[in-house]
Design goal:
Largest sheet: 7 strands, parallel
Strand content: 15-25%
CATH topology of the largest domain: Rossmann fold
Distance between the termini: 42 Å
Length: about 400
C-alpha cells in the first residue's frame, strides 16, 4: 500500500508544450467548491501551468480557490433550488445572463484560449458560438443528458420539452470543437447529436487515488456490534434516495436487523424532505443524514464502512459514488443498469432495478459474508488503480483541452 501511495504521488502532471493558455470554465448546477469533477480538472490545469477562470455560483465552499495562484473566480449570486420545470427555466435564464456578463468582462480584458462548458444544462451554445468566432477553442464536458434527466425527474412530462432539450443538445455539439463525457453510452449519444468520432472522448470521473489512499478508518463510526452502510452524493430527485429509505425500513422492520446503521453523506434539493420522511418512518435510530462533508470525511466514512449502496435508476449514469466505493475497496449493492454494470460488475452485488426487497436481502447477505466482501472490494480497488483513477484520466483531459489540440 505504501508503494502504491508513493507511485501515485510521484506522478506529477506534465506541463504541456507551448505558451501558457487561458482556460475559462462555466458551471451552473453546482458551485466549483462542491463539484468533485471540476475541482480535479481545475487542479490539473493549474498544475500543468495554465491560467484558469471559472464562472460559478457563489458559495462558501469556493473559498479555497479564491486566492489560488493562476486562478480567477467569477462568482454570481446563488439561487435556491428550482422547484418544477418553470423553476428550472428561471434558474437557467439567470445562469445564462450571469455567464454572458462574466465571460464578456473576461474577454474584454484579454484572450480566452479555451472555453469549457460543463453540461447540463445545454444552454451556453450561443456564447460558445460568439467566442469561437474570436478564435476560442470550445470544449463541452457532458456529465448528464438533459432529456433523460428531465424524464427521470418529471415522469410523464411534456414531449415538446424533450424535443427542445434534444435540439439544445444538437446545437451544443455543433458548436463544440471537442467533447468529453463520463462513459461510452453518453459518448455515443453525443456522436449521434453531431459530435465527430474523433472529437468525443471518455474521461471517467474516477477519484484521485493518491487522496483516497490516505483515508484511515475511524473507529468512532462503527461502535461494537454495528454494521455501517453508506450512501454518498447529491440528493436530487433523479437519485432516488427514497428507495434507500425503503431498503433501510425493510432491513429494520422485515428482517428485524437493528445492528445495521445507514449514513447518508451529502446534501441537495431532497435533503430536508428525506429527513422528514425518515423521521415519519421512525428510522432515526438507524438512519443518519450528515449533510455536506469534505472529501477527507467522505473517504474516512468509506474506509470505515462495511458496505455501500446506490439506488439510482438512471440507465445512462456511471455513478461517481460507485468509483469512490471501489477506490476504498468497499463492496456495495446497486441496481442492475447498463452503465452501472459496465462500471462495477465484479465489485458489487447487482439486483433487479427498483426491487427494494431484493436489495435489502442482498445487502444483509453481503454484510454477513466477510469473504465475499473482501473479494468484491479487492476487484473494485484493482480496477480503480489500474484504469479508472483520475491519475489515468487526467492525460486524456489535458490532451483534449490543452494546447496540443488547437481550435
Amino acid at each position: 500500500m505504501r508503494l502504491l501511495r508513493r507511485s501515485f504521488r510521484a506522478a506529477r502532471p506534465r506541463r504541456l508544450p507551448g505558451k501558457e493558455w487561458h482556460v475559462a470554465i462555466v458551471v451552473e448546477n453546482v458551485p466549483l467548491g462542491t463539484d468533485p469533477r471540476l475541482r480535479k480538472q481545475v487542479d490539473q490545469l493549474l498544475a500543468a501551468g495554465h491560467r484558469v477562470s471559472v464562472v460559478t455560483m457563489r458559495d462558501s465552499s469556493n473559498r479555497v480557490y479564491r486566492d489560488r495562484r493562476g486562478m480567477r473566480l467569477l462568482e454570481y449570486p446563488s439561487r435556491r433550488e428550482a422547484d418544477g420545470p418553470l423553476g428550472h427555466v428561471g434558474e437557467y435564464a439567470s445562469a445564462f445572463a450571469w455567464a454572458t456578463l462574466r465571460l464578456g468582462t473576461l474577454r474584454a480584458h484579454g484572450r480566452i484560449d479555451v472555453l469549457q462548458v460543463c453540461q447540463p444544462p445545454d444552454i451556453y451554445f450561443p456564447l460558445a458560438r460568439l467566442l469561437r468566432w474570436t478564435g476560442t477553442r470550445v470544449v463541452v464536458d457532458q456529465r448528464d443528458l438533459m432529456p433523460e434527466l428531465f424524464r427521470s425527474r418529471y415522469p410523464g412530462g411534456s414531449s415538446a420539452v424533450e424535443r427542445v432539450l434534444h435540439l439544445f443538445e444538437r446545437r451544443t455539439q455543433k458548436v463544440a470543437h471537442a467533447s468529453i463525457t463520463v462513459n461510452h453510452y453518453l459518448a455515443e449519444r453525443l456522436r449521434a447529436a453531431g459530435g465527430g468520432r474523433s472529437e468525443v472522448s471518455v474521461v471517467w470521473n474516477g477519484p484521485v487515488l493518491a487522496r483516497a489512499l490516505e483515508a484511515v478508518p475511524d473507529p468512532r463510526l462503527t461502535p461494537a456490534g454495528t454494521r455501517l452502510v453508506v450512501w454518498v452524493g447529491k440528493m436530487g430527485r433523479q437519485d432516488r434516495v427514497d428507495l434507500l429509505l425503503d431498503v433501510a425500513e425493510d432491513v429494520v422492520r422485515r428482517h428485524g436487523r437493528t445492528d445495521v446503521r445507514f449514513v447518508l453523506l451529502g446534501d441537495g434539493e431532497c435533503l430536508e424532505e428525506l429527513r422528514h420522511d425518515a423521521a415519519a418512518r421512525e428510522l432515526d435510530p438507524w438512519v443518519t443524514f450528515s449533510g455536506w462533508v469534505t472529501e477527507p470525511e467522505v473517504f474516512a466514512h468509506l474506509a470505515s464502512a462495511d458496505a455501500g449502496m446506490d439506488t439510482s435508476l438512471q440507465q445512462e449514469v456511471s455513478p461517481v459514488k460507485a468509483m469512490e466505493y471501489m477506490a476504498q475497496g468497499l463492496p456495495f449493492v446497486c441496481f442492475d443498469l447498463r452503465e452501472t454494470r459496465a462500471l462495477c460488475d465484479g465489485s458489487a452485488v447487482l439486483v433487479p432495478p427498483g426491487d427494494v426487497g431484493a436489495a435489502a436481502d442482498a445487502l444483509l447477505d453481503l454484510l454477513d459474508d466477510v469473504g465475499r466482501r473482501t473479494r468484491l472490494g479487492e476487484n473494485g480497488r484493482r480496477r480503480i488503480r489500474d484504469e479508472l483513477a483520475w491519475e489515468h484520466q487526467a492525460e486524456v483531459y489535458l490532451r483534449v483541452v490543452g494546447p496540443g489540440a488547437p481550435a
